[in-house]
Amino acid sequence: MNSLSYVDLHRRVSSDIDAEITAALERLGPSAAQVRRSISGLLGHQQMKYPLSVLPLLVHAAETGAVEPAVPLSAVHVLWWTSACYLDDLADGHGAHAPEGLGTDEALLASVLSGQALPIRVVQAQPVPDAVRNALTGEIVNCWIDAVEGQLRDLRGDVENASRDAVAAAYRGKSGAPFAMITAMAAILSGARTERTELWREFGDVFGVLWQLFNDQEDLLSGRDEDLRNGTVTYLLACALEEASPGSRARVLELGVAARRSEQARSQLRALLLAPAVLRRFEKDLMAFRDEAYRSLDELGGGEPYLTTLRQLVDQAAGMHLS
């Protein structure tokens, strides 16, 4: 098999993932018509720009050579992130962007079921031994705890004492945990030994950090500046604070507060974040996270075509796009 891009792989299996989600909704039965309608509306609203739902397929195939058995886990990934992204929008004050035909409260209830109950129902429906089913269910439950911990750290970010280590810890929760969950689940489903499952978990964890750094860059490049508007303590902001002199650090902190309301402050803060010294620090750490992901894949080994695609995903996540 020749190497396949993750986008091409998604194109090949997307209808199967959609069918898995549809089947999960249908299994709720006739008494859950409103639940199905609300979750379907949320799924249509929270379209994923990048089809990372192929990640469990690649992990499973790297272990076994087979993609298809992990399709239910791709459905879990879509459902989980549909919920998490909507909840994140609410936390950031974007509740006005509720799906068409759904009120904010309806969408909130749908997101709770989409991220928790429905993924568990997907797992419980799989024809696997009870021990495997229980382990997969436990991954979903534990992930939510770790992800909420990371999100709470993010929401309560102490900008005065912000550091790269503190931001990385938050990222490992809110983004690392769900990717660690899905890679570990794929390894469990494949029958991988415990030590290999933990290595896949480590890979997912660092990949999640890389993807958050990718998202941070994209937010600035797109001009949305949601992180600046929300006062989010990003990794780039932590780099700027650590690179700043005592006097200029106070200016960065001042602009971080003012940027929530002022376009001028956002423009000035953006300029400080894109200073050459800050970007050098950011890129150096970005490459360190990339190398950590590479080391995990090198240690794991497995089906080379699928590992090649995983390395391509790492390369995309670790791209340095700011200048």
Describe the structure.
The protein is mainly alpha-helical and 323 residues long. It has a single domain (6-317), classed as Orthogonal Bundle (Farnesyl Diphosphate Synthase). Helix content is 76%, strand content 0%. Helix 3 crosses helix 7 (164-190) and helix 11 crosses helix 12. It starts with 5 loop residues before the first helix and ends in a 6-residue tail after the last helix. The mean pLDDT is 93.
Please tell me how large the radius of gyration is: 20 Å
SSE order, one letter for each helix or strand: HHHHHHHHHHHHHH
Q: Give the strand tally.
A: 0
CATH superfamily: Farnesyl Diphosphate Synthase
Total separate domains: 1
Please bin the fraction of helical residues.
over 70%
Structural class: mainly alpha
Distance between the termini: 38 Å
How many DSSP helices? 14
Envelope shape: globular
What's the main sheet like? none
CATH class membership: Mainly Alpha
Task: Average the pLDDT over all residues and give the rounded result.
Answer: 93
CATH third-level topology = Farnesyl Diphosphate Synthase
Low-confidence stretches: none
CATH architecture: Orthogonal Bundle
SSE blueprint:
Blueprint: H1 6-26, H2 33-45, H3 55-64, H4 71-91, H5 104-124, H6 130-155, H7 164-190, H8 194-222, H9 226-230, H10 235-243, H11 246-258, H12 263-273, H13 276-300, H14 304-317
Helix pairs in contact: 1-4, 2-5, 3-7, 3-14, 4-5, 4-7, 5-6, 6-7, 7-8, 8-13, 10-13, 11-12, 13-14
Describe the structure in brief.
The protein is an all-alpha fold and 323 residues long. It has helices at residues 6-26, 33-45, 55-64, 71-91, 104-124, 130-155, 164-190, 194-222, 226-230, 235-243, 246-258, 263-273, 276-300, 304-317. The mean pLDDT is 93.
